[in-house]
Every structure is written in C-alpha cells, then in structure tokens.
C-alpha cells in the first residue's frame, strides 16, 4: 500500500496518548503521528522526503520542521516512553533483566553530516565513513526494548580535538547511559557488555567503583599472567593461550536460550587468572562448543563478572541476553528506518532515533499484550510478525473504512504526488 493516513486508529492511539502533554503547538501531534506511522509503514526509505510523500495531506516542510526545529523535548519524549513501558506489567523491567550497553554504526557518504568520520562501522563489518551511537537496551527472557542513545562525536568535529571539553570517549558515554537508566528506575541485575568494553580496564574500574554489577566478554588477546608448560614461573601470555590449562573433564554442559526462542548446547569451564592492568585475580568463564579444543571454536566466549553469587552457568545465560540488542539493531535498521535519516545535525538525528524507539516500543507492547493476535485469531510471536500484522490492520482500515469516505482527499493526494490517472474512476 503506497499511502499513509494520519488519523487516529484504535491500535496506536492509546500508546500515542502517553505523549500528549509533550506538545505545545497544535501541529506537533500531527507531525509526531505522521512520522511514527511512517516509520511503521512499508516505505522502503524512512526519511522526511519519502514519508511526507506517502502521508496523505502531509507537506515536506512541516514534517521537516517537526523533526529539526519544532520546540519539543526529545529527552522528555524518551522519559514518557519508558514510563509507559514501566507502567505496563507486560513490558515493565524486572530484577531478572539486564541493561545491555553497545554501540552501532550507520554508514554515511560525504563529510557534511555531523559526527561522520572513517571509523569501524559494525553494519558493514569494516572501517568506513559513518556515524557511531552508544546505546542502552533492556532485555530479559520475555521482552526487550531500547532505553537511550548518545552520539559519539569524533575529535575531528571539535575545535580543540581530543582536548576539547566536549570530547567524550565511548566508554564514558556508556557510563552516562547507566546513570540515566537508574534515573528512569529501570530494574536490572547486571550490565552486559561485549569484549570491546569488557577489555577496557578503565571502564571496568568505573563500574566497580560505582558498585555496578556486570557480566562482560573479554578479548581472546588479553594479556594474562599464568604459568604454562615450560614456564619456570608465571609469565605473560594471551588469555587464549591460557586455555590449555583446562582439560576436557573440566567442562560441563549447559543449555543456552537464543533470541529466537530455541536453545543451544555449549560447554563451560572456569579459569582464575590475573589479567594485565586489572587488579587481583579474575574469574573467567569459558563457554565453547568444542570442549576438546576451545581455542579452535569461532563461537568461543570468555566472560567475567563482579557478581560473586552468579554461578558459572548464570554468567553464560546472562551474557546470552546480549543477543537482544543485535536483534533490535536489525529490527530498527531493516524495518523501522533507523539509519535512513537525511538530516545532517546530530540533534535532529537523535530525535529521529528516539522516534524509532517509540515505533519499536509500540510494537513490543502490541506483541506482549497479544492484541493483534486476538483480533486476527492467528498466532503472532515475533516483533516482525507484529509489524506485518499491524501493517495489514492499517491497510484494511485505510482501504475499507477511510478511503470510501475520503475519495476526494485521496484523489488530491494522488494528484499532488503525480500519480492520479483521470480515466480511472474512484467511487464509493
């Protein structure tokens, strides 16, 4: 379906009402609803130009103004979204959940978009021109949703480079996101980070100083002090080399849940080693599918934690929840237009991302409540299935209810878009 109707519908409106007090001008709510419905639509590109072309009666300038210049507070928008999720027992955070910290890159051409630099962009798996954002994400075994986002601004964009007071490295942005999650009242039993953050001694020291529980992956190349065969005393080796201290009988099986609802079998064992630049010995939980030769396993995970009460299998299962942030990045970018903005200033780009968060959270609430499944009497289990069902629902509302009563409005939309064919009769 090639058009979007910016009018209330019973599935979306109750969630949109959570933001009513945010708008100070009459046209802001219309811009908000048009933008979010556009992100949820089938449009292949989710930028202002395309969305304004798809929404009936929507002009480009007003939608662009809503995103870039209209006086609304994106921090308050995000606070209200989180409050709505926390107020619903189906989507609220729980003490069994985790706060995942990660960063994501968006490839961009040219150098005119604020924050762009040649840097590692995970979406393309290599160094490329693009922007990087640090995000926080809530997840447990039943639900997941984005919490917040901060842009990483490379030193090349700052007047004094790395000495500029505004320059902040990604670990510091991640620490701020933890504080913001606490201020939102989000419950979590641990922060979960990948090896890029987990192998940073200053980041881990900051977590421990603030008594933040964590489960972190470690790089295989991390330097450790152990005594291996042939050593007279403890020497410096890589963590991967230290795996030879483990025998096959040291491993025990564990079942690990995946993001798609299935389980996989792995084998875990424990090492206690001194990591270079880290104080004291650390517990390292080794998780592998090849207990006879873990170093040969491409899926090998080396994990550590500061939560003494966590059993080794709990450490592994807690880290496995990190899969949900990868799932979110795919959903946000592939289905909701996360990286498809065409504005150039970071303030507007962050607004775009937080509106993507609204679209994603609406889908999660619909999925958890089972509303669409009850209406169509068909199982709907995943977020993508929820999105497809919502699109079908809106298609039927637009075509069967709205269009027969608004044929002249629709004809004007087609005429404006350049698609009206006078020989085709549109009648009730």
Kindly describe this structure.
By secondary structure, the chain is of the alpha+beta class. Among the domains are: 137 residues, no CATH class; 96 residues, no CATH class. Strands 1, 2, 3, 4, 5, 6, 7, 8, 9, 10, 11 and 12 form a 12-stranded mixed sheet that branches. Helix 3 crosses helix 4, helix 5 packs parallel to helix 11 and helix 11 packs across helix 13. The longest helix is centred in the C-terminal third of the chain and has 24 residues. The mean pLDDT is 93.
Largest sheet: 12 strands, mixed
Low-pLDDT regions: none
If helices are DSSP runs of H or I spanning 4 or more residues, what is the number of helices? 14
Overall mean pLDDT stands at: 93
Number-wise, the strands total: 12
Strand content: 15-25%
Shape: elongated
Please report the distance between the alpha carbons of the first and last residues: 19 Å
Helix content bin: 25-40%
Report the order of strands and helices: HHHHHEEEEHEHHEEEEEEEHHHHHH
Question: Over the alpha carbons, how many angstroms does the gyration radius reach?
Answer: 25 Å
| Category from helices, strands and their pairing | alpha+beta
């Amino acid at each position: 379906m090639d058009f979007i109707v910016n009018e209330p519908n019973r599935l979306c409106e109750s969630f949109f009402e959570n933001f009513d007090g945010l708008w100070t001008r009459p046209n802001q709510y219309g811009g908000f609803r048009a933008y979010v419905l556009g992100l949820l639509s089938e449009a292949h590109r989710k930028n202002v130009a395309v969305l304004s072309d798809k929404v009936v009666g929507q002009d480009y300038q007003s939608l662009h103004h809503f995103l870039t210049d209209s006086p609304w507070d994106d921090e308050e928008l995000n606070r209200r979204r989180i409050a709505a999720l926390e107020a619903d027992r189906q989507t609220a955070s729980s003490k069994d959940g985790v706060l995942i910290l990660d960063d994501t890159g968006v490839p961009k051409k040219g150098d005119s978009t604020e924050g762009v630099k040649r840097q590692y962009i995970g979406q393309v798996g290599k160094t490329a021109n693009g922007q990087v954002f640090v995000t926080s994400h809530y997840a447990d075994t039943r639900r997941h949703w984005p919490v917040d986002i901060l842009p990483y601004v490379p030193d090349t964009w700052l007047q004094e480079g790395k000495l500029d007071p505004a320059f902040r490295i990604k670990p510091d942005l991640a620490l701020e996101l933890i504080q913001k999650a606490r201020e939102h009242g989000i419950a979590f039993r641990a922060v979960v980070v990948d090896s890029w953050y987990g192998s940073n001694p200053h980041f881990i020291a900051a977590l421990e100083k603030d008594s933040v529980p964590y489960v972190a992956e470690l790089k295989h190349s991390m330097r450790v002090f152990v005594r291996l065969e042939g050593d007279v005393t403890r020497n410096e080796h890589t963590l991967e080399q230290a795996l030879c201290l483990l025998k096959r009988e040291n491993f025990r099986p564990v079942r690990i849940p995946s993001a798609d609802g299935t389980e996989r079998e792995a084998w875990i064992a424990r090492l206690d080693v001194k990591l270079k630049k880290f104080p004291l010995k650390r517990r390292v939980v080794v998780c592998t599918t090849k207990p006879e030769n873990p170093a040969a396993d491409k899926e090998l995970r080396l994990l550590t934690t500061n939560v003494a009460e966590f059993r080794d299998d709990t450490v592994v299962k807690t880290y496995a929840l990190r899969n949900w942030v990868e799932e979110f990045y795919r959903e946000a970018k592939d289905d909701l237009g996360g990286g498809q903005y065409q504005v150039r200033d970071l303030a507007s780009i962050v607004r775009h991302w937080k509106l993507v968060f609204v679209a994603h959270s609406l889908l999660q609430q619909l999925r958890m409540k089972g509303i669409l499944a009850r209406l169509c009497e068909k199982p709907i289990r995943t977020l993508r299935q929820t999105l497809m069902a919502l699109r079908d629902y809106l298609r039927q509302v637009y075509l069967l209810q709205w269009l027969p009563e608004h044929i002249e409005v629709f004809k004007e939309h087609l005429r404006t878009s350049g698609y009206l064919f006078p020989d085709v009769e549109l009648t009730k």
